[in-house]
Specification:
Order of helices and strands of chain A: HEEEHEHEEHEEEEEHEEEHEHEHHHH
Number of helices of chain B: 10
Radius of gyration of chain B: 25 Å
Strand content of chain B: 5-15%
Number of strands of chain A: 16
Strand content of chain A: 15-25%
Largest interface: A-B, 71 and 67 residues
Largest sheet of chain B: 4 strands, antiparallel
Shape of chain B: elongated
Structural class of chain A: alpha+beta
Strand order of the largest sheet of chain A: 8-9-7-12-13
Helix content of chain A: 40-55%
Oligomer: heterodimer
């Protein structure tokens, strides 16, 4: 029935052992036996979605007219900044991802203080370096600048107000650190500029020594230092009687305050922690009840092959769970549903095979022939039908990704992967196990052992 | 062998019986689209024991925040759900504070969903596109998979007709659910719908595959007998896979799985059931109907009479 049975058993045992290892641990570490140093390590803690542990999800959109293209690199930078800003709040496990070409989705599982996160994200923080000439505006003053994120000219403000020229934006900043001046009495801010910024900054400071260069965050003045000397090397220092705290706060604003694209919140979802925990417990219990009923049915109806199918479903579950943990998939409620459905697809493949096997047995074939025929003949319909399910999953995944609909994404991902893994277990594992069983004891009574 | 196909017009009638009432409800009530597609806010809170606010005071709190379309419902679990147009986070905080002041106790936020109006409209149009792309993918796929069979195109069309049937069943259930259980069509509904489409095709492929195989083995049989034969041969599998495994799993999700998944599980349950039903009682009979060109004989009556 199978020629290289030992190889097959070895492969399955190896995969299963590795899967169980991943399933049962939170960290995977392989040590070098010589010096006991870690050769490889990976964190495989399970991640629960917002719907299971509560939390906050926000969808941010580039606040730029829909007709205009958003620079993908700028979106990438904006994503990094939102990530850094929210990381700085000490929120664990937050995930910030780009969704489509003009949206960013942020997820903060387990978060209860949603307001501070929203406030942090919402300070959209467009940092500008503005030429204010001889004028040194006070902190908090609102300035009109001529910088436009889309490159279109800014309309002149109402009469009487001045439009100041923006030399460059915060995206030209490369690094910002807090240091002390030479006497070690005051704190200063050291900054380094990217090459383009260094050139602009060099030209401007050379021509404007003694004038003020005002730093503006969201059109609001945060500091207005005087240009003491030309800064041409791309590195400079801002002094101004800072304490350590104020220097640090300023540095954070400089570092993370420079969004290359203005963002607005277009969608907020908050799930309370109780609702999440309740859903998780109930769905897991429901899944378990369903699985037990299905296992009982499979064994009662298909007898020996049924037992084998249930075993291979257990192996399937172990492998699938390990894959989810390994690739850090977030477990969501629809994800659980997708997993259950793919279990159904795994069983479907086995049912197709077993029905075919029974047909062959009824037609008077011997056991070995029936097993072979069952697999060969059922293959085309298993292949074609599962491909259809995978195609739909991919379309769902695409849809979920563009809109940051992580729930839809979670479902389609578990479904597609589940169907893929189930093909392996239904075809490869079930067959191997069945042959082992059949060789172990040779059933004579087909009626009893195969339920024909 | 059981003769399934001869009663085909009875099955078509049965399908109409299932589909039409729900669709009429949908036509009368309109599509119950959730804020996922229309934009708006859904705010669910619980008040401290005995400190609840009545509908009027909640609505007036909303009105003070400048939102004048709030609708309040109480859920089975005793929490209060308020639907309204899009709430900014500031407006939500204002409302929450006002509620706490009015009751004098902390108010627990169960969930808060707020979707901007433009994004909702885009999700809706993309959703329609996703369904369209899925359907197109399916025709191409089936036509390719059955390219070696005579009239491969017919199999694709029949699969699509059956798929439309399953989609109609899902919408019909959604219409009934919307009228009697306050269901709404949200992103999860769409997910369920697309899954039904995917599995519907999967099911057709299994039956068609058997017809494909039998067509080679049993060349001399009349087409109707051949199709009937194929259905009967795959019947056990269809029943076992769909009813016993998938439905057991989904039924336990629907019964024990918490409210969040209930609607999703029920829609999947009915949709997948319809997927199996339509392979046997819609797609295959139409294949036969097409082969026999029954529209020329007044849908079989002339021939049978």
């Amino acid at each position: 029935m199978i020629r290289n049975l030992t190889n097959r058993i070895a492969i399955i045992a190896l995969i299963l052992a590795f899967a169980l290892w991943v399933d049962l641990s939170n960290d995977i570490e392989i040590l070098n036996p010589v010096n006991n140093q870690a050769l490889f390590s990976r964190n495989v803690e399970p991640r629960l979605g917002l719907d299971l542990q509560g939390g906050l999800q926000v969808l941010l959109e580039a606040d730029i007219p829909a007709s205009q293209q958003v620079d993908s690199q700028a979106m990438e930078i904006a994503r990094d900044i939102v990530q850094q800003r929210t990381d700085a709040l000490g929120v664990n496990e937050n995930v910030i991802q780009i969704a489509g070409d003009r949206r960013i989705v942020g997820e903060f599982p387990g978060l209860e203080d949603t307001e501070s996160v929203l406030a942090t994200i919402q300070q959209t923080g467009l940092l500008e370096f503005v030429d204010t000439g001889d004028y040194s505006p006070e902190e908090g003053t609102i300035l009109n600048t001529d910088y436009s994120p889309t490159g279109e000219p800014v309309e002149l403000p109402e009469s009487g107000e001045v439009l100041y020229h923006t030399i460059m934006t915060g995206s030209e900043l490369d690094a910002v650190t807090v240091g002390q001046d030479q006497l070690a009495t005051n704190y200063v801010i050291n900054f380094r500029l990217k090459s383009e910024g260094a050139r602009i900054f060099g030209d401007h400071t050379s021509a404007n020594v003694g004038k003020f260069l005002t730093i503006v965050l969201d059109k609001q003045v945060i500091s207005s230092p005087r240009i003491e000397s030309a800064i041409t090397g791309g590195e400079g220092t801002i002094t101004g009687g800072f304490t350590f705290e104020s220097a640090n706060a300023f540095a954070v604003q400089l570092r993370y305050g420079s969004l290359p694209v203005p963002l607005k919140i277009v969608e907020t979802r908050i799930i309370g922690p109780t609702l999440g925990a309740d859903s998780l417990n109930k769905s897991l219990r429901a899944g378990l009840i369903g699985m037990v009923i299905v296992a009982m049915f499979m064994i009662l109806y298909y007898r020996l092959p049924g037992i084998v199918a249930v075993l291979s479903i257990l192996i399937y579950a172990a492998i699938a769970f390990a894959v989810f943990k390994w690739f850090h998939f977030t477990l969501t409620l629809p994800g659980i549903a997708g997993f259950l459905l793919s279990t159904g697809a795994a069983l479907d493949a086995n049912i197709l095979i077993f029905e075919r096997m029974k047909e062959e047995l009824r037609n008077g074939r011997n056991l070995a022939q029936a097993v072979d025929q069952g697999w060969t003949r059922a293959w085309s319909s298993i292949r074609d039908s599962n491909l259809a399910a995978i195609i739909t999953s991919l379309i769902l995944f695409w849809f979920g990704s563009t809109f940051g609909a992580t729930i839809v994404k979670g479902f389609s991902l578990t479904l597609a992967l589940g169907v893929g893994i189930s093909l392996f277990t239904a075809i490869y594992v079930t067959r191997t196990l069945l042959v082992i069983f059949l060789q172990g004891f040779k059933p004579k009574n087909y009626d009893l052992w195969f339920g024909i | 062998m059981i003769d399934i196909l001869s009663k085909r017009y009875l099955y078509f009638l049965f399908s109409l019986f299932v589909i039409v009432p729900g669709l009429i409800l949908l036509a009368v009530d309109g599509l119950p689209l959730s804020i996922d597609f229309t934009g708006g806010s859904l705010f669910e809170v619980t008040f401290a024991e005995g400190k609840g606010l009545d509908t009027e005071s909640i609505i007036s709190i909303y009105e003070e925040a400048g939102i004048d379309d709030a609708q309040v419902t109480t859920t089975e679990t005793g929490s209060v759900q308020i639907r309204s147009s899009f709430l900014t986070n500031e407006a939500r905080d204002e409302i929450l504070t006002a509620m706490q002041e009015a009751t004098g106790e902390p108010v627990t936020v169960i969930s808060f969903d707020s979707v901007g109006p433009t994004i909702g409209a885009q999700v809706a149009s993309r959703a329609a596109l996703a369904v369209g792309v899925a359907a197109l993918g399916v025709v191409i796929y089936i036509t390719l998979a059955f390219r070696k069979v005579q009239n491969a195109f017919r199999y694709g069309v029949c699969a699509i007709i059956a798929m439309v049937h399953d989609v109609a069943v899902v919408f019909s259930i959604a219409g009934i659910g919307a009228r009697y259980f306050d269901w709404q069509m949200d992103a999860l509904f769409l997910t369920a719908l697309l899954t039904v489409i995917g599995f519907s095709v999967q099911d057709k492929v299994v039956v068609f595959d058997r017809i494909r195989e039998n067509a080679n083995l049993l060349r001399r049989l009349e087409y109707e007998t051949l199709v009937n034969h194929s259905i009967v041969q795959t019947l056990q599998r269809s029943i076992n896979t769909q009813l016993m495994t998938v439905e057991f799993l989904l039924l336990s999700l629907a019964l024990f799985g918490g409210i969040t998944l209930q609607e999703f599980a029920v829609i999947l349950l009915v949709g997948l059931l319809s997927g199996t039903y339509s392979s046997i009682f819609v797609a295959a009979p139409i294949l036969v109907l097409w082969e026999k060109r029954e529209w020329t004989t007044w849908f079989g009556r002339g021939a049978n009479a």
